[in-house]
Amino acid sequence: MAHWYCVLGGSLKEIEPHFHELARHSSDRKHQSAATSAKNEEKRNLSLGGHVGFDSLPEQLVSKSVTQGFCFNILCVGETGIGKSTLMNTLFNTMFENEEASHYQNGVYLRPRTYDLQESSVRLKLTIVDTVGFGDQINKEDSYKPIVDYIDTQFENYLQEELKIKRSLFNYHDTRIHICLYFIAPTGHSLKSLDLVTMKKLDSKVNIIPIIAKADTISKSELHKFKIKIMSELVSNGVQIYQFPTDDETVSEINASMNAHLPFAVVGSLEEVKVGNKAVRARQYPWGVVQVENESHCDFVKLREMLIRVNMEDLREQTHARHYELYRRCKLEEMGFKDTDPDSEPFSLQETYEAKRKEFLGDLQRKEEEMRQMFVNKVKETEAELKEKERELHEKFEQLKRMHQEEKRKVEEKRRDLEEEMNAFNRKKVAAETLSLSQPVKKDKDKKK
Amino acid sequence: ISQTSEKEYVGFATLPNQVHRKSVKKGFDFTLMVAGESGLGKSTLVNSLFLTDLHKDRKLLNAEERIRQTVEITKHTVDIEEKGVKLKLTIVDTPGFGDAVNNTECWRPITQYIDQQFEQYFRDESGLNRKNIQDNRVHCCLYFIPPFGHGLRPVDIEFMKALQDKVNVVPLIAKADCLTPLEIKKLKERLREEIDKYGIKIYQFPDCDSDEDEEFKQQDKDLKESTPFAVIGSNTVVEARGQRVRGRLYPWGIVEVENPSHCDFVKLRTMLIRTHMHDLKDITSDCHYENYRAQCIQNMTRCVEMMSVFHSPLAPLSPPCVYPAPLQLRRMQQMLQKMQQQMHEQEL
């Protein structure tokens, strides 16, 4: 930080806003652009007459961040059983609780766990995100999607917080993934097809460090060939992995040499084995003991140096300055925001926002109208249908009534006919009776003669 | 029980020697299939087993090329000889298995290949000239399970289930030098449990006869209890304990492939080559092949029965695929005639 101020020159008043901006990672882009234009104007180097004291600024920054506590989020991507949990336990020298995952998950899902660690007055809020079920399915075409979605969600949450009116960024628990450790299976040949596909999808969203897991199954010569093959495959497919920064002189040398050792071949273990007169973390085999912290056995120490002791802060910065910014820009562009409108006049976020809101409300109203229309139409249709049905029923009723009357008439006719017949029969009967009454008198007369 | 010792010596006690002599003259053949994902050491193990280098100029694919890879079947045949006994060894390799991103039904080419060999043999067996039948049937399939997981994965289960009725499946734990003895024990127990649970029929060693001696029985028991075998292979010879052995050189020690306390390679070799090779062949021909044949014929009879209702009684039968055995043919014709009779009776 110290050399920055000398280059800028100028009075302390000019410098302070820049400093605070850096410290709080504020999202006021205009201020930044104004600052750079100020820098390009005039560089005046002033020499100080005595000791002013602003060389304590880094210490102030450090003490502030120590009181605030640090936050770090690691994403572990790798097949089930490849050693992710064991490596995390070994790296942080703690037994994080975890159950063995099963191979029979239907899909990939992410399991974040947050822990509060402390080491000599420095507090770290560590979040470890595990990918459960990765690489187990028969069809792995969609395996990368839950991972990408998770990373995007964390970015989205941060963006939402940034865009709030009343926001509290200093208090915000940053869940954005700072580093993705990609665990490569030690086949000794090359990357798996799934590895290539997944890393390609992740390289623009997160810092990736590829590591070779369970490296105690590869001999030295095979390991050398394997590393070269992996790096060449990554390069030829355009996968961008995290490069340890070499711009800061104090660490550039070690970082540059470490870059050449990628991917790190690691072995993890929490068990301790007695070697010589010390108990070291190791794995005991019938043919020998693999010591985790022995640099000629594996690259665990290198990984720990790079990841935790040297570059943790740089990882956080890269996540914020590069990956998050990319996400934010894409997201806002999607929503229709631009930095400059067609006339190259700088847009204000407010105006664009208002315009968008109006458009959205207009859309909403239109949709409501449409729905209402549809509803009215539907009602009319149903009414018409019902009327039609009513008419049909009525007709049927009339028809039935007519039939009924027809029947009745016929029955009446028949009844009349029957009555007539009965009457005729009765008459004939009466006639026959009267005839028979007069007949026997005649008979008697005949007989008497 | 005839007391042959009292009678004159007949001489059929020399039969085993005759069998031995004839078989040496004829020579043996064996087809071994290896299956599993790339990078599990299949080729290295085969080289170690048969002490030859079968894969001299192999071209391994890049990860990018493997994204949509399909499974191929490659065959290497070598003739090897030991103490006058000739063996024609065929190794069937399955490059590409499980390597693509989408591995749905990636075992289909493998099952098709096995069925093809059965069909070929069936055809040859039913043919007229059976002098020189070549037996290309797969006698054993070594399936490599990766040691990096916690047990069987879905693709392992599906593969073994698809092949259990077609070939003798012998599961192996590959690259066992990444597991400590305790981890190996746990993994073997887990695998045995899961194989039981999912009803996967792997190759079972035949029980030894009750009149074998105790040492042999103990050996047999040990063998059975250490399945699935955890193997390590190597293409290089290293110097260990004053001897030159096949092994892997690490900064922390030397893994000897043939050391029984390092891995089960010796057990596998004993089982596969020295004691059970013929049993594998027998089970293939008595069990798996017979199943295939019976199913094939059943399918054909069903087709023929359906067709016969529309055909005239004594029309020459032309089955679509393979000629059935003459006995079957006569039986089918008899059935046909019976059916025709029944139909006539019904009509009258």
Automatic annotation (TrEMBL), chain A:
| Alphabetical keyword list | GTP-binding, Nucleotide-binding
State the source organism's domain of life: Eukaryota
GO MF terms listed in the record are: GTP binding
Pfam families noted in UniProt = Septin
Give the species: Amphilophus citrinellus
Name of the protein in question: Septin
Query: What residue stretches are annotated with the Septin-type G domain?
Result: 68-334
Q: What protein family does this chain belong to?
A: Belongs to the TRAFAC class TrmE-Era-EngA-EngB-Septin-like GTPase superfamily. Septin GTPase family.
Q: Which SUPFAM superfamilies does this UniProt record tie to the protein?
A: P-loop containing nucleoside triphosphate hydrolases
- Which stretches of sequence are listed as region Disordered? 23-42, 398-417, 422-449
TrEMBL record, chain B:
Q: Does the keyword GTP-binding apply?
A: yes
The UniProt entry, under InterPro entries, shows:
G_SEPTIN_dom, P-loop_NTPase, Septin
Q: Which residues form a coiled coil?
A: none
Q: What is its main location?
A: cytoplasm
Which ranges does the record mark as transmembrane?
Answer: none
Where it sits in the cell: the answer is:
Cytoplasm
Task: Report a single Gene Ontology molecular function.
Answer: GTP binding
| Residue span, Septin-type G domain | 26-299
Instruction: Mention any one GO cellular component term assigned to this protein in its UniProt record.
Output: cytoplasm
Which UniProt keyword terms apply here? Cell cycle, Cell division, Cytoplasm, GTP-binding, Nucleotide-binding
Q: Where is this site: Important for dimerization?
A: 148
- Family per similarity comment: Belongs to the TRAFAC class TrmE-Era-EngA-EngB-Septin-like GTPase superfamily. Septin GTPase family.
Q: Identify this protein by name.
A: Septin 5
What organism is this sequence from?
Answer: Amphilophus citrinellus (Midas cichlid)
Q: What taxonomic classification does the UniProt entry list for its organism?
A: Eukaryota, Metazoa, Chordata, Craniata, Vertebrata
